[in-house]
Amino acid sequence: MKIAVYPGSFDPISNGHLDIIKRASCLFDKLYVLVSINPNKKYVFNEVERVEMMKKVCKDIKNVEVCSSSNLVLNFAIKNNARYLVRGLRNHNDFDNEMQLFQFNHSINSNIETILLFPSANNLFLSSSSIKELVKFNSDISNYVPSVLKDEIETKLKERL
Ligand code: ADP
């Protein structure tokens, strides 16, 4: 059984993340979407909100399970028999980060492979930060976030930014 983990902050989830989840779910028997909790990072949406939002958009994808963890992603993968980490690769910055992350992970456990997926064309320039910027300047985010979450994301970002 091929099991993978797609970790991220998802603060908030974008159509780019969802696209990666849908495509990765077709490549593996099981895909864990792991909402990461890094005490050194400041999030706009708390853990429960990020998990709940992710569960809402993944509920119809049968082989996806949404979890959260403040542990090392690798430890989560090992504990859940996952041999693959999925990440998105948009640009050179992502490339540099992912290369470093891979080397770090590989030095700890060389059995776990990283699978990088390019974004679909619409999502190439999309990031959680750009969604925050758009809301801050009262621009429409309909094309960038799952429609079922649009109002919640917009309202909470307006209150908090
Ligand atoms: P992190 O804080 O781990 O970078 P993010 O939530 O920003 O978490 O992203 C999680 C993963 O999704 C990363 O691999 C990132 O490159 C990827 N990703 C983010 N936005 C997009 C997008 N628009 N298209 C494809 N992949 C994306």
Please tell me about this protein's structure.
With about 160 residues, the protein is of the alpha/beta class. The protein has 6 helices and 5 strands, in the order E-H-E-H-E-H-E-H-E-H-H. It has helices at about 15-25, 45-60, 75-80, 90-110, 130-135, 150-160; strands at about 5-10, 30-35, 65-70, 85-90, 115. The chain has a 5-stranded parallel sheet, sandwiched between helices. Strand 1 (about 5-10), helix 1 (about 15-25) and strand 2 form a beta-alpha-beta unit. The longest helix is centred in the middle third of the chain and has 17 residues, at about 90-110. It binds adenosine-5'-diphosphate. The site of adenosine-5'-diphosphate (ADP) has 16 residues, from helix 1 and strand 4.
Give the strand order of the largest sheet, numbering strands 1, 2, ... along the chain.
Answer: 3-2-1-4-5
Number of helices: 6
Tally the beta strands.
Answer: 5
What is the typical, i.e. mean, pLDDT? 97
Main beta sheet strand tally, sense and closure: 5 strands, parallel
Name the structural class. Answer: alpha/beta
Ligands and ions found: adenosine-5'-diphosphate
How large, in whole angstroms, is the Cα Rg? 15 Å
